Amino acid sequence: MQRDANSTAKAAGVNYSYLFSSSNSANNSWQWWGQGSYSYLRLEHLGETQQQNIIEIKPVLRWYPQNEPLGSFAEAGVGASYLSQREFGDIQLSTKVNFALHFALGYRFTSGHTLSLRYSHFSNGYTNVPNPGFDFASINGHFSF
Question: Which helix (H) or strand (E) holds 83?
């Protein structure tokens, strides 16, 4: 995973999710989502402002520990991403096209809105070297409309 820090970066983004399938049992609820997102990150590094634009597309599996898709959930997604810059802060990637991976814990309200804490990782999966990875944590709010 990542060895250098970008902890002072500021981020904003938008995400679109599409529910492909859902299944419920007596004790669990599972959902497959298709997800596309755009993130903008900004960082002051060595006296200059750096920007990073990230585009992602990935399938996401979400699990609810109850028989309907409400309340607490855990999710994981793996897909593809494009990063506008190979350098961001102290991190120097060898490719702009990378794998995108995330894990999240969250809560889905009866309105359909969700709030989650997400860990995201981007790397080229050792298809090229170096492969330092690019990681960040975020709080995400998704609004259903």
Answer: strand 71-83
C-beta neighbour count of 42 within 10 angstroms: 14
In this structure, are residues 140 and 116 in contact, taking their beta carbons and an 8 Å threshold?
A: yes
- Number of H helices and E strands in the chain, helices first, is 0, 9
Instruction: Round to whole Å and give the CA distance between 5 and 144.
Output: 34
Q: How confident is the model at residue 50 (pLDDT cuts 50, 70, 90)?
A: confident
Band the pLDDT of 128: cuts 50, 70, 90.
confident
Backbone angles phi, psi at 107, to 5 degrees: -140, 130
Rounded distance, CA 4 to CA 119, Å? 16
pTM of the model: 0.85
Alpha carbons 119 and 137: distance in angstroms, whole number:
4
CB 60 within 8 A of CB 75: yes
Report the run of H or E that residue 14 belongs to, with start and end. strand 10-24
How many C-beta atoms surround the C-beta of residue 41 within 10 A?
A: 23
